[in-house]
Write a structure and sequence with these properties.
With 503 residues, the protein is an alpha/beta fold. The chain has a 5-stranded parallel beta sheet with strand order 2-3-4-1-5, covered by helices on one side.
Length: 503
């Protein structure tokens, strides 16, 4: 059974005219073939997927074609057919990464002395030539200085700066540019129509943007996505693990509006989903750029900061923390939102006196009559009403005090402010209780460190008087906690039916 070729191999150009986005290089090569003025060594440099090896193979066929047509290979003569099918002994392709040593190059030097079997030229195509060792380059240099008339070398590389200058100077070099997005999108539509792939509006353009100038990468994505049904922009985002555009826009708009709480929520969502923060910032930068180009100048000031942030993230010891610091620097410390149980600081005994109007004590006791229900309701006096107002005023003061405390913590240490920002607080009988919600275990563990805890207590004393203790806990459930040393010893003693002697 014949092997089915991948999409990009089936659509590999067979004529120079089919090459996309390299018009100047193609015109130069066709002219050289038509005039019979071929060089003994060529170097094709550029990023992956732009046509380096394709151009080398086309030139190998055109140079050996028995009936070239205006510099194009005819693809019908025996030489073209043999080269196309990979059966020609006169066109040799070598992977520079796996044949990089001096022994392989010495063997090549011996082979070049032999005349071609049935073609005009013996062609050696060396892919990723920059992978050759320095000794191999030195051995190859002698052949490049005095090449046989029947030999043509064609080198392809993604890193031309690693090729010695002595080798570069003996080659006719072509620098291939990334393929423009509009040309990639046009080719995607052509291939999709021929292959029967359904493309939604804008999907081809989105694929072209994600390919980064590589037509081969775009065709690989097209094939992978096309097998699953109609191709949409949302499907592409999901397949590549990209953040949704609506989330990117929400993050950018939160930064512009200085809504730190909203931006931190988005970061927490990314952490819960296990997303790559560097990729998120890269996509946010790209989205901001697109919106600025479209005329939204309010995002212009964000671009330099996002560029710097994207450069810093790979080196950050905690990418999430680094991103949160960026948000706080841009937006300031957000005012914390707290659940009902932590909004007020009055004692639990007083809290029990406040009854929600939604509750029906009569129903909870199984009483059916209105009279029975009212008998069990607490009696509210003017004194009770005044207490409720006092509690509400006290709760508002607590919110203000917590906000001032966060600002002071941020001024004391930036990381202290970051770690405290998502915490929920309550202050009762001289004890400040801080609860880190689920998803913020790193913040919790950082606040428990001795140095940071000391700074926290120092700032807290300025706002909470008296301050007898600071208790920090974590509301999440990340699995079983590791045993303490004492617990481990006790379990070991029990399993061995022994006793623990001494403290």
């Amino acid at each position: 059974m014949a092997e089915e070729l991948s999409l990009y191999r089936r659509w590999r150009p067979k004529r120079f005219a089919e090459v996309v986005g390299q018009e100047l290089v193609v015109a130069t090569l066709k002219r050289a073939v038509a005039q019979g003025k071929l060089y003994h060594a060529y170097l094709f440099a550029g990023q992956r997927g732009v046509g380096k090896t394709t151009l080398a193979r086309l030139l190998a066929r055109a140079a050996n074609c028995l009936a070239p047509e205006d510099g194009e290979p005819c693809n019908r003569c025996p030489n073209c057919v043999r080269i196309l099918s990979g059966q020609s002994l006169d066109v040799v392709e070598i992977d520079g990464a796996s044949h990089r040593g001096i022994d392989q190059v010495r063997q090549l030097r011996e082979e070049v002395a032999f005349l071609p079997v049935g073609a005009r030229y013996k062609v050696y195509i060396i892919d990723e030539v920059h992978m050759l060792t320095q000794e191999a380059f030195n051995a190859l240099l002698k052949t490049l200085e005095e090449p046989p008339a029947h030999v043509i070398f064609m080198f392809a590389t993604t890193e031309p700066h690693k090729v010695p200058a002595t080798v570069l100077s003996r080659c006719q070099a072509f620098w291939l540019r990334p393929i423009p997005e509009e040309l990639i999108a046009k080719k995607i539509k052509e291939v999709a129509q021929a292959e029967g792939f359904a493309l939604s509006e804008g999907a081809a353009e989105f694929l072209a943007r994600r390919s980064g100038g590589s037509l081969r990468d775009a065709l690989v994505l097209l094939e992978q996505l096309g097998r699953a049904g109609p191709i949409t922009s949302d499907q592409i985002e999901a397949y590549l693990g990209l953040p949704p555009r609506v989330q990117l826009d929400a993050f950018l708009e939160a930064l512009v509006a200085k809504d730190g709480a909203r931006a931190l929520e988005i970061i927490a969502d990314l952490a819960r989903r296990g997303r790559d923060f560097a990729l998120f910032v890269e996509e946010a930068l790209s989205r901001a750029r697109d919106r600025v180009v479209a005329g939204e100048d309010e995002l212009l000031s964000l671009l330099p900061d996002l560029v710097e942030l994207r450069a810093q993230l790979p080196r950050a010891f905690s990418r999430r923390l680094h991103l949160e610091l960026f948000v706080l620097e841009k937006c300031g410390v957000p005012k914390p939102s707290q659940p009902d149980g932590l909004k007020t600081s009055f004692p639990p005994a007083e809290q029990e006196k406040v009854v929600s109007p939604k509750d029906n004590p009569g129903e909870s006791l199984g009483l059916s009559t209105a009279a029975s229900a009212t008998e069990n309701l607490p009696c509210y006096s003017s004194e009770t009403s005044e207490k409720g107002e006092a509690f509400r005023f006290q709760g508002a003061k607590e919110d203000d005090r917590w906000a001032e405390f966060l600002r002071a913590a941020w001024e004391k240490r930036a990381d202290l402010g970051v770690f405290l920002a998502p915490a929920q607080q309550s202050y009762v009988d001289g004890v400040l209780r801080l609860v880190l919600p689920e998803g913020f275990r790193f913040h919790y563990e950082s606040l428990k460190e001795r140095e940071l805890l000391a700074d926290l207590e120092e700032v807290a004393r300025k706002f909470y008087d008296p301050l007898l203790a600071v208790e920090i806990s974590y509301a999440g459930d990340d699995g079983p906690k590791p045993l303490t040393f004492e617990e481990a010893v006790r379990l070991l003693a029990e399993s061995l039916e022994g006793k623990i002697i001494g403290p």
